[in-house]
Each structure stands twice: as C-alpha cells, then as structure tokens.
Fold these 3 entries.
Entry 1:
Amino acid sequence: MTSIAKARTAAPALTTMALLSLSVVHVAVPTKNAVSAPALSARPRLTQLSVPATNIARGRPYTLAPRPNYPLTSDGGDEVQLTDGAYSVGTPLWTRATSVGWVNAAPVTIVIDLGSIQPIAGVSFSTAAGTAGVLWPRSIFVMVSDDGRRFFSAGDLAALPGKADPPSAGYAAFRFVTGDLTMHGRYVAVIVDPTGPFTFCDEIEVFAGDPAWLGSTLTADSTTDLQKFFVEAHMRLSIQRRLSADLEKARAALEASQVSGAVRAFSEHELDIAGSQIGAVPLQPSDSFRAVLPLNAAHARILAVHGLLRQASGLPSLSAWVVNPWDFVRPVDGPPAAAAGPGTLTIAAMAGETRSGALNFSNSTGRPMTVALRLSGLPDGPQGSALHLYEAVWTDTRELIPVADALVPLLDGTASFNIPAGMARQIWFSFTPTDRAPGTSRGVLEATADDGFRVNVPMELKVLSGRFPDRSRLHLGGWDYTDAEKIYGLTATNREALIQQLRRLKVDSPWATSSVLPSGSYDALGRLNVLPDTSRFDRWVSRWPGAGRYLVFVNAPETLGNVEVTDSRFPTAVGQWIKFWVAHASALGIQPSQLMLLLVDEPRSAGQDERVVTWGRAIKAGEPGVRIWEDPTYADPAGSRPQLLDVSDILAMKRSLMLQQGGPYVDFFRQRRARGQALDVYGAAGAPRLLDPYTYYRLQAWVCADVGAGGSFFWSFVDDAGGSSWNEYATTATLYSPFFLSSDSVTSSKHVEAIREGVEDFEYLAMLRDRVDELGRNDPNHAGLSEARALLDNAVTLVLQAPGAADMQWVPDKDRSAADRVRLAVADLLDVLRR
C-alpha cells in the first residue's frame, strides 16, 4: 500500500479546494461492550440512509499518522481496533483500551485500504467528548483514492449542522455519519482536525455503494498531498468560520439596538453583502497569509456595523479608556458604560527596570480611522529614551478567539495608528527610566482622530527610589537553540533579532542543541584520540557573552562517538569528553558550574532514568563541577529513580504538574531543596496566545520565589508550529513561542513582556530580603523593619492565592493587579528601609 504519511511541513499553496457539500446524519449511540456492531439499519436515525448496510471497511488494514500517543488507549490493538467492527464499552471513551487516542496531534490522518476499488456511499466516524477538556472535532475531512496517490475530496463530516448535532454539554458517545456519497476508491482517508489537544475514535465504517459507480469519473477537487490539503482546507474553513461568527454577532447587536430605520436598513444591507461573500473567500498561500483582523474586505464590512451602531447611540467617533495591561481585550469593545472619563494612565518603575501600561481606543464610526498621538508635559515623548509606544495588533487563533497580543512599535515621530471601522485598538506603553531622579512626571496624551475629534488622557510616570541591578538574580531561559542555523521558527535571518529580544527580556540562560558538544573519537582504552570540533560551540558562546548559564540539551544517545553505552570504556570516554569541553569552555571564561547539561528531556520511565544515571555518573566522575539539569515528569515524583535525583544538580519542576498534583508534589521538591539540591521551574502548557500572560507567564517568577527556585524557563522561545506565529489557521502542531516570528523578524508580545515583569517582581522580593537581612544584623530597630519582615512572609501568598491566580486561561475576567499591589508595597518599604 502506498504510504500517505507526509513530512509535517507546509507545502506550496494548492488551488481552491472547495469541499463537496454533504447531507450529513450525526448519530448519537450508546457505547457497547466491545461486541460486533449491529446492522446499520438497526441504529437510531440511520433508517434515513438510502444505502446498503454493508460495512466494507470491517477487518481492513489502515495506516495512522501520527502514531497514537494517548497513554490510556495506546496498545498493540491500535492497528486493528478502528475497523474491527467492535465499539467500546464504558465511559469515558478515552479510558478504554479498545479505542485509539492522540494528544497534541493535528491533524490525525487515518487511511483505510479496502483491498480493491469499491463503490462508496458513506462513512461513519465514532468518537466521544464533553468532559475533561475533550471537545468535538472541528472537522473530519473524508478523501477517497483509487491508487493511494491522488485523493479526491468527499467533504467534511463535521461541517453541516442539523438532524442530530453533538450534545452541547456533558459527556456523550457520538457518530458522525454520511450516507449520501456517490464515489469510489480503494483507499479512504479520514483526516481529523481536533478542537483542543485530544482526538479519540473507536470505529470507522465505510458503506458500500452502487457497483455502477465504479465506471464514473471523480470530479471533486483532488490532491496528492494530504497534509497540504489539510492546511489549505483548515485555513479556508477557519476564515469562513471567523467571518460567519462575527456576522452572527453583528446581526445580534443590530437586532438588540435601538437605531433608526435608516441605520438599521443600511446595516442589514451591509451585512447581507458581507454574508454573500463569505463562501467565496480567496485563499492566500499559507506561508504569506497573516491572520490579522480584519481578515479581508468582507470582514471589515461586518465589523464596521458595530461602529455604526455605537455612532447611532450617540458615542463620539473616538473613545479612550485606561485598562490593566494584562486584561483580555475583545475586537469590538467599546468604552465602559459607567466611565466618566478615560482615567489616568500611571506607570511606576525603578531606574533600570521596564514596566507597562495600556490604553484602549474605540472607533465608533463606519469607516477606518487614523489617530495621531502627542505627549505634552512629560520629559519623554514616543521617541524618548524612557517611554516607548506599541500597537497591539489583532490576530486570530486556531481556536477562533482573537487576541490583541503582538506589540508592533509605533516608529514615526507623531505616533499615529489606524483603527478599523467599529473596532477597538490598544496602545501599549513601555516605561524604562534610566538616570532619572525619583519622582512623578505628569502630562497629557492627546489623541486626535482624522475627523478632528480629540481625547485627552492624563498620564503619570513615577520613578521609584532605588536602582535595579544589571543582572537579575532569577535565571531565565526558554530553549532558544540559537546555536542552530534553522530550527523551529529560528532562521539564520532572524536569529540576531531574536537574541536582541532575549537580551532585552533579560535572558541569561541560553540553550543549545547537542551539536555544540560533538563527541570526537576514542581509542581501545576509551581515551580521546580525535578531538571534537569546537567551532559550533565557539560561535554559540560568542553570541551570548557574559551569560550566567550555558545549557545544552545533550539528548544522551546510545553511543559517544565510537563507544557504546554498554561498553566498558564508556565511563572513561565520557570522562575524557567532558574534561575536554570543560577545559575548552574555561579558556573562553566559562566556569564548569556554568555549563549545564540536560541529558534526557522529561524522563518518566525506568529506561530514561537509567540513561540519565549512566551518563550523569560518568560526567560527574570526569568533571564534578559540571551541573546536571533534569526535569522529571512523574506525576508522583517519588517514582523517579533515587539515583537520577541524586545525580542531578538542578531539578526542574513542571508548572502544570505543580498545579495538577498540588501540595504533596511541591513538598517533595521542597525537601530536596532542604537537602541542598537546587530547583528551577519551567512551563510547557501549550499555545501561548490564550494562556493568561499574567497568571501563566508573570506569576511563574512568583512560584519560583515560593519554592526557592533559582531559574525560570518556558518551552519554547522558538517553537512556532512550523512558521505559524502570524497564521494559526495553518498550524499542524501546538504553537508555543510567545514571540511572533517570521523568517526575518521577531515581534514581541504581551506574553513576552509578562515574563520580563515577573523576573523584575522576583528582584523586588530579593532586594527587600537583602535589606531586611542587612538591617537585622546591623540595625534591628530600624523603622519599617518589622513591617518589611511581615510583607516578606506574606507577599507570595498574597499574589499566588489571590482569586483567579491559578486560572491559566486569558479570556476569563479576573483581578490581575495583586502582583503590582505587592510590588509597590515592597518599593515603599525599600524606600523606608534606605533612610
């Protein structure tokens, strides 16, 4: 059989792939005790199907791409369970070994070989969802092929509503079925586009059609690359769903409005025109399209209706209001109903740190608007050394929840920006005082629309007493792999821009791939006789002068050069290898303790633990100063081999496990720290755009302060799901990078700024602790000392136990001000303690 598992890379754009419309019957059926499926005609609602009940896929082989990886369902039966004619018993489906499951896989492609070319009348896909974060598939594309090379589109099983849609709430087993195909083929491909991280299935059926169809010519759109088809089809459907959802919201807003008949008629006309254009959206190539709102002219027309309605309600053409910079914003937000004015934009920072503020603007007209900004009364304008302005650009996400996240600098001297008709626009302020004396500067931000309407916003820039150190005490990194020429979203043409952004972020712990530490070759006694090439290591280090740590993902293999791990020479060879690299690093000014090695990433099995122990012991015997950095991910950390824990100098705790497992998990690592072992914390929870920049990114530094960790890391600064930072409609993997990456540029985001502010929060606590300790030794009766001790005892609790602090999702409304309240209280006490 011809394999259709393609490389997971974006292909050139395909011509328009309009999916065939299907008459789809969605069937809810109770789960069964792994017995043969009953006859088709006996199932609820399937009596409507005018096709024979023969399942021609039963017992037929299939291929799976990628391999199933959900732990509770993965077993040897995955190769046969989808066509064995047996449905799973018990709930939920994802706990049944008789089903097949994937996590963080998009798309899931299943190709069934019917053995010969068959007439095909329908397809059935059995799944379940409704609890535990498992959602119904976004799309289930069906393709057929006579030869296994060229596949023809048969439609999307999940595309059409009606008849028996999946339940909107609560767990249910469910079958997506069509019986209205008139196609033929030997191969049937089912391509599942999951909503969220999970895909589960326990049976796929293919229904026989009329043998007379075998002589027909298939005329549907076709492809020889199923991955390419998926990307293009997903993009098209995402754009259509974005426009359709916004059209529905605009119609609802119009219906609820009290506008005049003329405004209502005009708005209805505009929406009707836009609605007629949704199905004919031209598709740009996936590698050049950016999901920036509005997506196209039809989308702009839909969103403009909100501006017309606000204008008709009496709102001025331009509104502005101060917001918490971390709060979630929505594209058509208008000013708060009770707002008496825009409020005062206040930002407070010490010399040497950077803090943020945000101001929302709303265009309450039916046309695009240009707004010019001018600062008066402040020592720093938009081009000043201390204050910088950014436009928060709207991009859509794979989940079709738009975010104002990308921060694009406003570069021109007048700091002008555009607001599409009916939309909101956020301007981000970044304040970095350097040599300014403590005190408050007050001024006014004048925002003038192109129709002459002006809004004045009072501003306060406060320079707090004290100065930030040049180097933060909390180490920071994010698997940037800047040694590589190209990896994930890192390219040779954007690497320098990324490094500049990371330095601005105060990253001091860069990561490299194993390529920077090649092995060399060894003689019969395990002695190094062919020296490793140092050029890649040297280039990497030169890009990061003065870093606090140099971390390398060794990904410990079965061999070191020509010596296998089971060879008696292996410990000697590893000792020789690490001695060479320590000597070379020392010549470049890098101490052995600065060189940190991750041998196996997220070890969670006995075999992985043993690999760490074997390599780690040999490294420590050769150069005890080198530090082993490991991140075991056992739900019960006591499941790690004690030898792994002992050979590791730094244990990194996964933030999601800390939240899931709670106190006992964290206490285990606290006990390790009490015995002298260092701790770090890292986050790897998924796509950043919908993660809360405040709770997920900024508060991770507070978690480090809570557990006594010395480093904070995030996976990953460069993992952009195959070039999809600006176009999540084209993603086929989870996007992790908080940056917006392109082949030759790197754009910051609110999530990035939150990381930086968290590191600075950590420094506030460290500065207060230092001052308290100093006064405790030298001036125990100093004014404010007892209050400072009390704040140190309670600061982390006040932040991490504030309402909503454990909620990692960005969309929900919550109080995101606790960290700043505590930070400013620390600043006040530091001022008192310095006197």
Entry 2:
Amino acid sequence: MLGVGVNLFSGGSTRAEVTRFEHQKLRLLEEREKLVDDIKMEVQRNLLDTATARQKINVMKDALQQAEENLRINRTRYQEGVGTATEVLDAVTLITAAETNYYRAIYDLGRAEAAGNVFPRAGF
C-alpha cells in the first residue's frame, strides 16, 4: 500500500505567511523611523533648552546688577535722609529675587546640559 499526501491549498497559506511577514517588516521599519525622529527631536529640544538657559543667565545677570545698583542708590538716599527704610527693604527684597532667579537660571543650564549629555557625540 502506498499513499501520497498532497495539499492543494498549501500555496495560499505560504503566501499568507509571507504577506504577514512583510506587514510585520513594514511595521518594524515604521517604529524604527518613529524612534529615530523622537531621538532627533529630544536632542534638538535639549540643545534649545541649553541655548535658552544661557541667554536667561545673561538676562538674570543684568537684572542682578540693576538690583544691586538700586540697593546702593536707596541706601545712599536713606543715609542722606531723603529715602525711607521701606525703600531700602524693597530694594533688598528685589535683590533677593534677582539672586534667586540668577541661581535658578544657572541650575536650569546645568540641567539642560546634563540632559544633553545623554547622547554625547552621537552625531545628531
């Protein structure tokens, strides 16, 4: 006794499997492209954050110098009897806020630079 088993419809299942693998390949390529775009956007955002933080430090440095000059003027006016103690206290409050903003800007720069060092010299 001899028997031969031939499946006449096996070509359809093979074709379906090839199609499934092609769809899977396309999906993986799209995911890869999305990941590359996400990484590029993250790097660009970190570069912009770093540049913004550097500019902010310059602005805050100028604001701090102005607050110091304001305090100097108000102290001189108070010592001459022209200004009030309240004006001096306001100037001290202003300089404290300016110092806080300046140091916060320095912190922001450090944070932005640290975030940018996740991919050092990655070529992006």
Entry 3:
Amino acid sequence: MIERSAVTTFLFTDIEGSTRLWEDQPERMRRALGRHDRLLREAVERQHGVVVKTTGDGVHAAFQDPRDAVVASVEAQIALADHALTEGLALHIRCGMHAGVSERSEDDYFGTAVNRAARIMSAAHGGQVLVSQTVADLVRDRLPNGVSLRDLGAVRLRDLSSAERVYQVEHAKLRCDFPALRSLEALPNNLPQQLTTFVGREQEHREIKVALNATRLLTLSGVGGMGKTRLSLHVAADVGLDYPDGVWFVELAPISDMSLVPLAVASVLGVKEEPGRPVSEALIAFVRDRRLLLVLDNCEHVIHGCARLAKQLLQAGAHVKILASSREHFNVAGEKVYTLPPLSVPGSEDTSSVDAVAGFEAVRLFVDRATAVQPAFRLTDRNAPTVVEICRRLDGIPLALELAAARVSTLSIEQISARVNDRFRLLTTGDRTGERRQQTLRSAIDWSYDLLTEQERILFRRLAVFAGGWTLEAAEAVAAGGSISGQDILDLLGDLVDKSLVVISGEGTRYRFLETVRQYADERLTEAGEGEQARQRQLDFYLAFVEKAGAGLTGEDQATWLEQLDADRENVLSAHTWCLRTRDGAETGYRLVHAIKLYWFVRGLLNLGHRVTVEALSNPPPRPHSLLRCKALWVAGQICSYTGRYAEAQQHLQESLAIARHHDDRSMIASIHTYLALAALGLGDRAAARVHSEQALELARESGNQREITVASNALAQLHRLDDNLDDAEPLYEQVVALAHELHDQEFAAIGIIGLAMVAISRGLAQRASDLLRRALAIAEATRSHPAAQSALEVSAGLASYLNEWERAVRTYAAAETQAARTGIRRDPADEAFLQPLLAKTREALGESRFTAIEASGRAMSFEAAIAEVRTWLAARN
C-alpha cells in the first residue's frame, strides 16, 4: 500500500569515473564493485539504515535519523579509501543527502525529497559528501566527534528547480579540498529555473542522453503538450558539464518568420550581425571552435529556417550539438529523431489498487500536481480507480494531466473525471481524421476553458495577442474593457496561473502561455470576434511603451530600458505587423520605427531595424507629405548609412528632405543634411558631403537647436579631419564636447573627445591623445555605451601603432573588430581613413603571418577584457 513516509533522510552514492574503469579493467571492476556494494551496505545497516536499491554503480539508502546517514557516509568513505579492499582500484564515491516527506510504495520511495537527494549527490565530486540545508539543520547540534560541516553556499542544482544551500561533511580522514560543485553555476547557460518538479521520463532521459552522445542533431518529436520542452531542458541540465562553452536554450515559439531563427539564436549567444551580411555568417564564425549545446524549442512552425541554420552550424563547428523539440522533423543529414511517447499509464490488466498503479508516470505526475494545489490530496485505494481513469482518458499527455490536476482545489476527483468523460464523448462527433492525442489535448484545453468564469475566459482569449510573454501592466492595458476593469486583471491572472493556463516567468515579473495554449486562446479570440480590438489595444500599448523607452535610451536608465525592450521585442514586432495589416496603420507604424531606432543601434540589430523600417515605409500614408513619414524616412537613412547602404540611404533621405522642406521644418532639414553628408561621403562624393554638412550646421545654428548643432558640428569636423584640415576640425570637436556636456549627453561628449584624440595623434601629440582616450573610455564605461567604447578601442589601436607598439595595436584593433561584428556598426569613411594607414604600417612592421597570429588572439578577447587592458595601458602612460 502506498503511504506518506515520516521525515526520512535519503542517501545517494555513485562512483566517479566508473565508465572508464569498466572499459579499461572490466574484470577487476566487477570484483571491486562487489566489494564496494558490500562495504556500503554494511555501513548503511550498521547505522540503522536500509538500502532501498542499487542505482548503477551506487546505492539509494533511507534513514530515519539523519545523523545515522552522515555517520554511514563517513564510514563508507573511510573504508573505500583502502584500495586493498577494492582490488587495488581507487573507487572515488560521491555522496548526497536530503531529508523530507516522500511517498512510499512497498519497498520503494519516490517524490521530491528523493529526487533532491539524487541531485545533491550529482553535484559532488568523488570523495565528497554533501548534505542539504534540511539535513544540516537536523544534525548540526549533534554531530559525531571529529565530524563538521562546511557551508558551501546556495547552488542551483541540475534539476532546474530552486537553489539549495549545501554543506560539505568534513572529517580528518576525508579529503576536504574539491573543485567547484557540479552545479548549473559551474557552466555557462541560460536554462530557465522551473517552478515544478520533474516527474517520470527516467527511461527516456537515459535513452536521450545516449542518443545525444552518438549524434550531433537530436530532435525530440511528438504532439503538443507531450513535455518535449521540459524533457529537453532536463537533459540539457544533466549533460551541461560536457559543454565548456555552454548550454543555450532558444525559445522559438514567439517567432513567426523563419528568417528570424538565426537572429533568435544570435540573441541568446550574444552574437551580433555584421553590417551588410546575414547574421547566420556571424553565428557560423562564432561556433567554429566552440563546444556547446543548443536547445532549440518549438521548431515546427519555422522548421525550414531551423533546418537550414542547423545544417550550417553543424558543418561549421565540429563540437556543436543541437537538441531540438519539434512536431516536424528537420530532415537534415545526420539527424536522429526520438519520438516522445506519452507518460506510462496503467493498462486494463492492471488492478486499481494504490500499490499497483502508483509507480506509473502519469499517475505520479497527476498526484504531484494535485498535491501542489491541494496539499491534503492523497492517492488512496478509494480514489485510485478514478485517477487511473482520468490518466487513461488523457492518454498520459503531461499538459492535459497538469490541467486536470489543477482543478483538484475546486472539484472532486469524481467531478473531474465526469467532465473529462463528457468532453471526450462530445469529441467523437467531430473530426475523426485528426490524430487522437491532438484531439485529446484540445479536449483537455476545451474542458479547462469551459471551467473558467466568464471574466477568466475573456481575459484568457485576449491574452493571445501577446508574443513571447507580457507584464501585468501590459495585460491591464490590453485585456481590460467591458466587464473586466484594470483592477480585476491581477486577480484574474492569478486564477489563470493557478489553473495552469498561464505560466509565470522572469522572477515573477512576466507571464506567458505555453504555445499550444496560446494557439488555442487565439482561436477563441477569433471566434469571439474580439481579435481586431485586442490587437489594436496591443498596438496602442506598445507604441506608448516604445516611445517612452526611446526617450529613456538616451538617459542614465538606458540599461533598464534595453532590458525591457529585449523582453518585449516580439511584442513590438507583432505591433509593427498589425500596423501593416490595418488600413489606418501607416502613420502609427512610422511613429513606432522612429521611437525604437536607437534600440536597433545599441543592440547591434541594424539589419532587423532596416527590415522593419522599410516595411513600415511600404505602407502608404493617408497624407503624402506627412511629417511622421519624413521622420521614418530619416530613420531609414540613418540605418542605411550606419550599415554601408549608402545609395539606399541617399534615396530615403532625399525623400525625407522633400517632405521637411514642404513643412519648412528647419530642424528636421538640418538633421537630414547631416546624414546626407555621411551617405555622400560613403559614395565617394566628398564635395557633396561638405555642402550637406555646412548646410546642416548653418540651419541648426539658425534654429538654435543645440542637439542639432552638436551633431552637425561633429559631421563637419569629421570632413575637416579627413581633408587633414586639423585647425578647423579641432575647434568643432571642442564645440561638440562643450555642447554635449550642456545637454548632459555624455555619450556624444565621448564621441567629440575621441575626435579630438584622432586630431592629437595626427599632430603627433601622443600624450594628449592618451589623456583624451582615457576620458572617453571613462565616459563610455560610466554610461555603458558600447558604440563609444568600440570607437575608443579603434582609436587606441591607432595610437599604439603611432607609438610603434605593434602587438598592442593589432590586439586592440582585433578586439574592436569583434565588437563591431556584434554591434553591426560600421566605421564611417573618415574614421576608416584615419585607421587604415596606421594598420598598414603595423602589418608591414610585423609581417603578414605575425600580424594574423596576433589578430587571432585579439579576436578571442572579450570586449570587457580588451577595455580593461587598454585602460591599464593608457593609465601607465601618465
């Protein structure tokens, strides 16, 4: 009979490096393992424990007193340290302990406490004994003589659940110094923390790990709601230590355009597109020498884009592996597909007693989730047949089981079963051609939707307009209306979370749908005829959000606004798409692209920014001479100028100029001339560039707009410096710095200071240039301006070359080039003309092979390390 145990302490052990021992010396290992098992069993039983079962090369033991578990683990470690007892083989065992209440069926235990103990063991090294905070609290005041605990702090275990504070058991006869624990903190990753326990899938977990070891592209296939995402995350966490360059989770559900798949992967890996080149090329270069695992989630709707990128990355990087979840196969050479079955469900031959059914995965999951919402819930001989019936009707599909279990707090098991049965009988009158499990899952969501209150239903379907999640503020703005007020949203959202229809993410600050549920909600939204109104509200909210963020990106809160825009980028793109579909959306779309322009620049997403802006401009305005269109064209011109699309930039800017002249907007005309100068310079027309720059500065001075004066002055100074007219360039740069300080625009002050540094190098004033670059770097670091820091690195490389410090010049230049590839910002022609002669001089001094070797080491530096190195060098020159 199944029963809930009293607080029990669970001990797990394992032999570190046993696989190699089995491969190298199988016969000796067989005899040594027999003695190992006997020594461990004797130590456990001597301390009143019970060996529950052996687990591969270790044991799972249970103790009523945690002190006994600690003593047994110490005795076992001391005994196994005598290699004479283990055939001369060094068997380094790792031990982990946790205490808690668990479920017990016959002679086995299962539940969260058991899983936690196993995970604590997996974080240990051979010879190390770890205990949880719970065990430490229970034994701290009654440890045996000679035994102590060392606090190792809180670690995030590889079960992706909450962090655990762990302690190391210490004794004079035990080793005490070990490397960092084998926790998630020990490896680069972005694996999201899970709020529920992982239940079942033990066999699939083992098989997937074996398959992943044998192939480089493994696709987990199965219908929606089968738990592909959760299992892939669980496997990724478990194998993470095999990938020194990280395990990276890429959620593709919010993406609707397959061309954005490389961008989604690049965003996670921190790889930025190179101007004028597809981001996939930057990804290929990034993975070439790295050993990493990519977890691509929800690929089916962008399968062709995923397949294309997967093939490119696997061909480029010999040590890259991809674990994907998709309802459709990639059909790429070398792909191995693992079809995920439903959770195990009791068959008709199984009895419905607790002991007979408690070990089945579907039952275990249902009981675990039901207990989470109703702690008093128990699986008993009385309710077991009904629970089994629910699990069978839901075909063991994890999502369906979780939705059903969430109702235990308000309905009896019998009521849940009756409603599920009713819904399935109704389904038999529908389309019989679809896959049964898909019908079952839809029925489960239908049923869950039917159980909602009318207000919950309204909110549920309105939330479908969000892509990639939403904040409470966004939900209040978009979903309120009619019978739902803004004040109702928080409680209603909580209800939807409690019923497992909405997931909380981002440390409780954001909400999201599982994609299957979002698609269902979207269908309901369309059926209700509310889609257009909800999407218009979403557009209104994100337009206001982006306009506020655009203003904030120029201030001291830039980092905060960047993070918020990162989180809602897919929603902003969704709002942009809606502008394209609505009859009156043109001018709203223009406002959107104008407000977000700085985000594309700072995040190095200029190609995406270009696409969005050009799409917005393709929407004809209701008024042909709209100032909003003028500004959108100006944005397009800027982006094209920064990415080297000079001819296209000129075309956009000329149209923008015509509209600005129609309105006689002198400030706008000045701004447009500034970027026409850059476009003309890029096209090799230096005379036109000078005319545009001079006109820009003249108009800016007439209007008295200090910001425009600052920008125009810098543009003209660049031209003077390009012409080697340093006497005219220098005062303009000084004016830029002074005006920028008045405007409290530290980033533009840094740009002016960097210009002065280039003038100083050209004049042979190395110490002045060094001092100026130190100032510019200090500003860039204080404001966290990557563009300014990148430019400071480039000019520092030029200074090093001028001083004949060849190796430093190449390393710094290479680090700046790597950063340029990430940001997408291309050096303008004036800066290029300054730097290239110095680099040519450096290349000649070092020789091609030496230059290339040093360049490779510089490209391998992190941006932060390069900045620190240059800062130290400049400081030493004082």
